[in-house]
Each structure stands twice: as C-alpha cells, then as structure tokens.
Design brief:
The structure is a single chain. With 223 residues, the protein is of the alpha+beta class. It is 26% helix and 11% strand. The protein has a 5-stranded mixed sheet with strand order 4-3-2-1-5, covered by helices on one side. Keywords: Acetylation, ATP-binding, Nucleotide-binding, Transferase, Ubl conjugation, Ubl conjugation pathway.
Length: 223
C-alpha cells in the first residue's frame, strides 16, 4: 500500500501526568534504553535523524527532549471502518533502533482485532511486513498504520471480541468501531481528555531519566 496523505496533524502535548490523562501516559516515561543490548551510551544518530525527518514531514508530532518519545496525531484512513476517527499515537524509540521496532500504541481507545484495548499496544509485524532496519519512523504513519487499520488480522488477535465480530458479523464490527470513535476518537474527545496539555510547542515535556514503567500500567478507567 502506498503512502496515505493527510493522515496526521501536529499535536502539542505538555506536562503530562498519569492522574490527569490516565490512558497510556506511562509509556511516555517508559525506559526506552536497554542496557543489556545497547552497545554505547552515545546518542543513536540514526534515531535522531529519523525523528527529525518525522518532525519535518506532514505528520504532526511532539518529541521529548531526549528524542526517544513522540506523540503523533493520526487520522483514520478513508474507506475503512476507522474513517473519521482521530487518535494520538505514542512512539518510544529504543537505543537499538532501527534494529528493533519502536514501541507503538494508541493513547485513546480503538476497537481493533490487533490492538490490546486495555493498553493500546500494537505489534507492527501483524501487518505482514516484519520490521526492518530499512524502515524509518515516517513509514509507520505512511504505510504501517494505514494498512493496519484497513486490513486487520483476525488470525492473530489482541482483542478476541473485535476479531470475532470482524470475521463473523462485519456490520456489527463496523458499528462497534463507530461507537468507539464517537466516544473516544473525535476531536472533541481528544480535547476533553488531553486538551489541557495541548499547545503550539513541539517539545514534549516528559522525564528523560531511567525510571521504568510497565506496559501493563497503560490503562484507562473510563468506560
């Protein structure tokens, strides 16, 4: 699938705290370093270059000071069950990038067979195209995510209920997607949940220390 244009717009997210924006914010504080695998404490030049390329692209994003954490605004592709939805995508770039895919997840809820509904975590490889060092961050938003939403893989589900509806009751699946979008993935819903952190700044104000947080902590109490 080729690049899908006009999918994202630049979003500013400031001074995030888990108590005020409960879903998935812990990933922004997640330890992106892997001391067991990193070969150097020097900055990852490839990662920095790819982050800057993403910031200069049409995709609208904010980046942390250490250039390891990003938040990108992403719009659902046309002619899919997700058309009209808007999501904040969190990205965490590890020290061994690009040899390992970045951690990617949805901050606001989405009903999708391959998205863990409680954490928003996804696996890029589920698209059928294994991550390669030849890929860069812009490919996630030009290629991986558009295909991910357009063509779910019910054979490898992270949300069994969504996978079952997708296979057996497609109309009900689309209805459920729309219900989720109306509640969690509209511009108004994003502003309501994250609005106090929106600004015109490109800097994402999050800690850059080595404090770790578990992916299992990315939960939201709202129904």
């Amino acid at each position: 699938m080729g690049a899908v244009s006009n999918l994202t717009r630049r979003v500013a997210l400031e001074s995030i705290s888990e108590t005020e924006a409960p879903r998935h914010i812990s990933l922004l504080n997640y330890n992106c370093d892997n001391p067991m695998m990193a070969t150097s404490r020097n900055p990852n030049r490839r990662a920095s270059s790819d982050v800057m390329r993403l910031m200069r692209s049409k995709h609208e994003a904010k980046v942390s000071r250490d250039m390891k954490r990003l938040v990108v605004k992403f719009y659902g592709p046309k002619d899919t069950a997700y058309e009209g939805g808007v999501w904040l995508i969190r990205v965490c770039v590890t020290d061994i990038y690009p040899f390992k895919a970045p951690l990617v997840g949805f901050m606001n809820r989405i009903f999708h067979p391959n998205v863990d509904e409680s954490t928003g975590v996804i696996c890029l490889d589920v698209t059928g195209h294994a991550w390669s060092p030849l890929y860069e961050l812009t490919n996630i938003f030009d290629f991986f995510l558009p295909q991910f939403l357009a063509d779910p893989n019910p054979g490898d589900p992270m949300n069994p209920d969504a996978a079952s509806l997708y296979v057996n009751e497609r109309e009900q699946f689309q209805k459920k997607c729309k219900e989720h979008m109306e509640k969690f993935a509209t511009e108004e819903a994003v502003r309501k949940t994250y609005g106090r952190f929106l600004s015109n700044e490109k800097q994402l104000s999050v800690p850059s220390d080595d404090s770790e947080s578990s992916l299992s902590d990315f939960s939201e109490d709202d129904d």
